Structure formats: C-alpha cells, structure tokens
Amino acid sequence: MRLRPGAAGLLLGRVPTWEICDLQVPLRDLFPARARRLEDCLAQAESPRTAAAVLDGFAASLVHGYAPDPAVEHAVAALGRPRPVRLPILADEVGLSERQLRRRVTDAVGYGPKTLHGVLRFQRALAWVRSDDFALAEVALRAGYADQAHLTREVSRLAGLPPTRLAERGRRTQDA
Question: How far is CA 7 from the centre of its chain?
Fold first, then answer.
C-alpha cells in the first residue's frame, strides 16, 4: 500500500513513522484485533483487483478521526518542488521553529526534511526517465539535480542501479 508522504499516521496511529521506517512490520503488531480478519479477506480475494479493494476498504475504515498535520502537508508540498524552500523559511511559513518542523516531519514521514526532499526528487526523476520523453540531462535539470552526473550518482545510491537500467526494469515490469 502506498501512501502520500505524511499520511502514514492514517495506518500507524500514534506510532511515530521513524520508529518503523525501512522495516517490514507485521500487520498484527500494528492492529492485533483487525489483522486476522484482514488476512482472511485477502486470502479469499479472487484477484489482485479484489485484494486491492479489500486493502482500500481497510484503509478507508481507518480514516475516521484521522486529520493530517497541515504543517507537514505544507512542508511535503514545498520539499517536493525541484527547488525547495530552505528549512528556516519553511518553518517560518508554517509558524514553527526549525527544530519543531524537523521533528513533526520526521514523526509523520519517517525521514527528516532533507532526506524527504531527496526521495521526492528521486521519484520525480524516475517517473520522467521512465516516460522516455526526456534525455537524462533534461531530467536532471527538471528534477532539481545539479547535472546528469549528480542524477546518476543519486539514483545509483538510492536504487542500486543507474537511471537508464532502473527505467528499463520499470518498463519491463509495467509491460508484464
């Protein structure tokens, strides 16, 4: 299940996202009472589409009472731009100290603002690389990297593959 950055609180409740960031946590650890029922429904699903509908229903059942943090939503939007605003300016925009904003973003997203910006930039670049509409140098510029070499280094560091190979793998997966 993919959620927008900052929406993990929908599933995690009071568990800070950074505590389980980059871990595979059994659903039973988060929802002991509801996990078995969800597992049974997923096991009975006749197709991936049906399973997705079951997961959608489960997530929708958690929405009641969930309210996203407006400061985090604003920060995610600002950090998602190719040229994000500097943290002191962003903190001032949302009426928080830098430390408070950093803590709230980390609690909601699992990463600090700088890492979140890098992940969002990576996702944006990967989408453009996979579209085949742009050369790597143009993707680097549009996504907010200094140059094509910077793009290649960062994508290789985050994904373990250079951008062109990662894009090929993604296209093969979509075609299958």
Answer: 9
